[in-house]
């Protein structure tokens, strides 16, 4: 075997190799067609979700991707996108983990957390919620893809006429503004009550 000549070596200034999912045309079969995904996600399919979910269209296995909205608006983003089980997990688990780590059975008020002797509790609370936000941001796109795929499979197995199938898919997808508004309003009321109490 001969050593490569300078002409045979790759140019360092060439574009980097694309990941596996970007080298192949988007697949996913008929159930994940462009029309079905656009129907499920609505107006944001072309501008946002087509790019965010591209890794999963070819290979649906989990790959960490990032979703700032899910990380920053935890757990509200999951409720907004109709991901009810992840919403429940990201809403309940951080508080449960905090209680297990601190061995505390009672909920601490904002007033109690402000005391100097409870500073470590405040730091632990911050660490648990930061970890939760990172987990939410890293899994949100995959969870959303799985929900869209499940909805598409469900509609396909109903064997409805094309128009009715797309209408059902549109209802299953999209966002849940009412539940999100109610949850945010109730959360604000609870927080204000804690500060006044």
Automatic annotation (TrEMBL):
Transmembrane stretches, start-end: 83-101, 121-144, 178-195
Record's compositionally biased regions (Basic and acidic residues): 1-15
Keywords: Membrane, Transmembrane, Transmembrane helix
Location of the region described as Disordered in the Swiss-Prot/TrEMBL record: 1-29
Superkingdom per UniProt: Bacteria
Name used for this protein in its record: DUF2628 domain-containing protein
